[in-house]
Structures are given as structure tokens and as C-alpha cells.
Specification:
The protein is an alpha+beta fold. It has two domains: about 90 residues; about 230 residues, 2-Layer Sandwich (BirA Bifunctional Protein, domain 2). About 40% of the residues lie in helices and about 20% in strands. It is built from twelve helices and nine strands. The strands form two sheets. It has a seven-stranded mixed β-sheet with strand order 1-4-5-9-8-7-6, with helices on both faces. The protein has a two-stranded antiparallel sheet with strand order 2-3. Helix 1 packs antiparallel against helix 2, helix 2 runs antiparallel to helix 4 and helix 5 packs across helix 10. It is rod-shaped and about 140 Å long. The structure holds 3,4-dihydroxyphenylalanine. The site of 3,4-dihydroxyphenylalanine (DAH) has 11 residues, from strand 8 and strand 9. The site of 3,4-dihydroxyphenylalanine has 11 residues, from strand 8 and strand 9.
Length: about 350
């Protein structure tokens, strides 16, 4: 009996240490210490011994069972630790790669151009004025002397807003309406620029967008002359496109100014020699003129006492000229490869 107990102890230690999984260990536990195992047979046979032998063999049985149980428990703890390590390893997230930095944003070329234009005027002492993008016909047309039969006043050229009970509303076709709103809201003198979005019923192509941006300018004071207009706009054109630019004024018609003019600047590509961009060496930059006395009167200003000049400059146009953008539609397509080229970030 003692020999078979010794054999079972050896067999048990080996079986438990060889078990590679919890399931194998549990099978070994049944095979060594289970009810049908040789060990249990010995245990049952103890009852047939003499009382003295029963006592001594019984003690060995108890010691052996305790040793085997301890060996099994120790192995179980080892296997559970291994299983847990495997679970942790399976859950591992690899953080060893460098992270991806979010791209810092950059200013849109239109914002850059607008800031630059507005800054020039702020330095000259102007202030920034604003007006609504949905306008009524009076501010957008009538007050600006634009007659009822003017083509801009048709559905074909302007975008009307259909609000029941407000047949006269449209998306402003030019920032000139801010001239009217500014004069209505304050007495002279006026020195303002008004940057903003304008809308025309137009199909987009390389040089036109149906939604674009202008900076309107308005000066009204005592004794303002055409020389003030010329000096101011010449300085602005040079500030935007370089001090060696030349400018010239040519006649043009806009209903809200008299006389009206167009300011051209020598081409920044060819310096006025003539090239495919400009044709004859000159690039038309903006419309301008002396504020029409009727417009002053429409806003309650006394045209006998006050005179002024006004101008309207396309921001999109300034941007494509300054940054040599080949197609104006690039400004609104949102292509990150295009936008990322305008580095400065705020
Ligand atoms: N509003 C004109 C346009 O959109 C531009 C313009 C011309 C504005 C002459 C002016 C001006 O203030 O005096 O074509």
C-alpha cells in the first residue's frame, strides 16, 4: 500500500507539472485524486487493515493527498497567471509609432487679400462699415441712381429672394448699397471701406463666379476733389501690387458717380510691356468716381456743401492677380492642396 501511495505521489506530481492548460490540469486532478483513481482505491482499502496499520497508513494517505492537492493548486496558479498574461498581450495596443500631427490651418487667399486691402485703408484713417447681403431694391438700385430699366434690375441678371410680402428683396449685386446705408446712418464726414460678398446670376468660368467679394470705398467731406480720388487710389494700388506700379484713370460709366472712371495698373507680370495676362500692359483694377449729387441727396446730404468719391474693388480679382492663380474657381473649390500653399496662419 505504501508503495502504491508513493507511486501515485510521483505520478501525480508529474501529471500536474506536465499539464499545459487548466483543462489538462483538471483532467489530471480527476485521474490522480478522483473517486475512480488508484489513490482512492488505496484509501478505500485502508478499512481492511489492523487498527495500528490503519492509523499509520491513514496518516501517509492524508499527507500524500495534501501534498498532491498543493502541487495541483500551485500548478493551477501558474497556469492562470499564464492565461492572464496571454489575455493582456492580446489586448495590447501598439503606441510605439509616432502620432499624426493635426495640420495647422492657414488663411484662405481671399481672407489674405481682404485683410491686406482693408489694412491699407485703416492706415489712411478709414473705418470698416457693413451692410446686409439681402437688400431691398431701394438701397441696391434706386438710391444709387440705377434706373428701373437697367438690365441689372431684371430677374435675368440679379438673384431675387422670394419672401411672401417682400417682392423687392434680392441678394445684393454690389457692395455699393453699403454707401447708402452708411450715409443714412451718420452725418458727414464719411471715410469707410465695406468688404463683403455679392451675388450675380452668372455661370462660373475661369474669370467669373456667381458669388464673389468686393471692397466698397466711400469718402464724403467738404472740399473732396477728383485729385483726392486719384491720389488715394494710386497709393492703394501701389501698396497692394508694389511701389513701382503705375496707374492710369480712364472714363467709365456707373450711374451713382459723375464723372465715373476705371483705374488700371501696370501689369505685375510684364511691368507694362504687354503679355498674355494683360494684353496691352495694363490691368483694370476697379471702378470709381465722384459721388453723384443725386446720391448724396437721396441720403439726406447737402450736395452744395459736400462732395465725395467712391470706388469698388473685386477682392477675388486682387487675389488671383497677387497670387497668380490661373482660375478663379480654385478660390471656392476647397482643395486642400491649393489652400495649403497660402502659408500664413493666424
Ligand atoms: N459697383 C460697381 C460694380 O460692382 C463697382 C463700382 C464702380 C463701385 C464705381 C463704386 C464706383 O463705388 O464708384 O461693378
Amino acid at each position: 500500500m505504501l508503495r502504491s501511495l508513493e507511486r501515485e505521489r510521483e505520478r501525480g506530481f508529474r501529471a500536474f507539472s506536465e499539464a499545459a492548460t487548466i483543462a489538462e490540469l483538471e483532467a489530471a486532478q480527476v485521474a490522480i485524486l478522483g473517486r475512480k483513481a488508484p489513490f482512492s482505491d488505496v484509501q478505500r482499502a485502508v478499512g481492511t487493515l489492523e487498527p495500528d496499520d490503519r492509523k499509520s497508513v491513514g496518516r501517509v494517505i492524508n499527507e500524500t493527498r495534501a501534498d498532491l492537492q498543493r502541487a495541483s493548486d500551485e500548478r493551477r496558479a501558474e497556469l492562470e497567471a499564464v492565461a492572464e498574461d496571454a489575455l493582456i498581450a492580446a489586448d495590447r495596443v501598439d503606441l510605439s509609432l509616432p502620432g499624426r500631427r493635426p495640420r495647422p490651418g492657414s488663411l484662405h487667399p481671399l481672407s489674405l487679400a481682404e485683410d491686406e486691402i482693408v489694412d491699407v485703408f485703416l492706415r489712411l484713417g478709414y473705418r470698416v462699415a457693413e451692410g446686409p447681403e439681402i437688400e431691398d431694391e431701394w438701397h441696391n438700385f434706386e438710391a444709387l441712381n440705377i434706373p428701373p430699366d437697367h438690365p441689372a434690375r431684371t430677374m435675368k441678371d440679379s438673384i431675387y429672394v422670394h419672401l411672401p410680402g417682400h417682392p423687392e428683396l434680392l441678394l445684393r449685386t454690389e457692395t455699393s448699397s453699403v454707401q447708402i446705408r452708411t450715409m443714412q446712418s451718420q452725418p458727414p464726414p464719411v471715410y469707410i471701406v465695406a468688404p463683403g460678398r455679392v451675388y450675380r446670376r452668372e455661370t462660373a468660368d475661369a474669370t467669373h463666379l456667381p458669388v464673389f467679394h468686393q471692397v466698397e470705398g466711400l469718402v464724403v467731406d467738404e472740399g473732396i476733389t477728383f485729385a483726392d480720388l486719384k491720389g488715394t487710389l494710386d497709393a492703394v494700388a501701389r501698396a497692394l501690387f508694389g511701389q513701382d506700379r503705375e496707374t492710369k484713370l480712364g472714363p467709365a460709366f456707373f450711374p451713382f458717380v459723375e464723372p465715373g472712371a476705371e483705374l488700371a495698373v501696370t501689369c505685375m507680370r510684364c511691368d507694362g510691356a504687354g503679355c498674355p495676362v494683360c494684353g496691352n500692359g495694363w490691368i483694370e483694377l476697379l471702378g470709381c468716381g465722384m459721388v453723384h449729387p443725386q446720391v448724396l441727396e437721396n441720403c439726406g446730404y447737402d450736395p452744395e456743401r459736400y462732395t465725395g468719391f467712391a470706388f469698388g474693388l473685386g477682392i477675388d480679382r486682387v487675389a488671383i492677380l497677387k497670387y497668380r492663380i490661373p482660375d478663379i474657381r480654385l478660390l471656392v473649390e476647397g482643395d486642400i492642396r491649393f489652400l495649403a500653399q497660402f502659408g500664413a496662419s493666424r
